């Protein structure tokens, strides 16, 4: 097998080696996250570098990074380029602030939800989850969001 042939993978090989379903490979391609081409026999083929790109996509998704942001991060990287450790540092540098904010927000939510009585009034003076500073209380009594007032 020549080195150029070993650099080319069928969609089933990509799915098996990356641990995602064939439909996910197609979805990622449709979203512009990865790229492939068709052979003369109309079969999808991908450069071997797609495996590292899919690994990055999956790790980023697991961290809660939206696909649009992942796509932007990968946009300037040629599809036949195998992402390096330096590329990964660039991604994580760009995503760290967003992840730290998400962690802070979720920690705050976890700590505040313990004091929620779940009454659904949405206008309690002390409801920091749905009505910070009792903004809805100035609109009148009761569940303002639920009654459209």
* SS-based class: mainly alpha
Per CATH, what is the topology of the largest domain?
Answer: Multidrug-efflux Transporter Regulator, Chain: A, Domain 2
**Sequence of strands across the biggest β-sheet:** 1-3-2
What's the pLDDT, averaged over the residues?
82
- The helical percent reads 40-55%
* Whole-number total of structural domains: 2
Number of E-type strands: 3
Secondary structure layout:
Elements: H1 3-6, E1 8-10, H2 11-18, H3 22-30, E2 37-38, E3 44-47, H4 50-62, H5 67-74, H6 85-113, H7 144-147
Antiparallel strand pairs: 1-3, 2-3
Helix pairs in contact: 2-3
What does this structure look like?
The protein has 149 residues and is mainly α. The chain has two domains: 3-100, Orthogonal Bundle (Multidrug-efflux Transporter Regulator, Chain: A, Domain 2); 115-149, no CATH class. It has helices at 3-6, 11-18, 22-30, 50-62, 67-74, 85-113, 144-147, and strands at 8-10, 37-38, 44-47. A three-stranded antiparallel β-sheet has the order 1-3-2. A hairpin with a 5-residue loop joins strand 2 (37-38) and strand 3. The longest helix has 29 residues, at 85-113. The protein starts with a helix and ends with a helix. The model has no long low-confidence stretch (mean pLDDT 82).
């Amino acid at each position: 097998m020549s080195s150029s042939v070993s650099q080319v993978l069928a969609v089933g090989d990509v799915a098996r080696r990356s641990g995602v379903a064939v439909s996910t490979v197609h979805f990622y391609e449709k979203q512009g996250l990865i790229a492939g081409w068709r052979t003369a026999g109309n079969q999808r083929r991908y450069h071997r570098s797609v495996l590292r790109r899919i690994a990055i996509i999956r790790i980023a998704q697991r961290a809660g990074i939206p696909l649009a942001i992942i796509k932007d991060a990968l946009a300037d990287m040629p599809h036949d380029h195998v992402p390096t450790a330096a590329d990964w540092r660039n991604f994580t540098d760009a995503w760290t602030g967003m992840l730290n904010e998400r962690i802070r927000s979720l920690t705050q939510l976890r700590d505040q939800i313990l004091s929620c009585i779940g009454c659904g009034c949405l206008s309690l003076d002390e409801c920091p989850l749905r009505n910070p500073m009792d903004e809805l209380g100035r609109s009148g009594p009761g569940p303002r969001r639920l009654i459209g007032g």
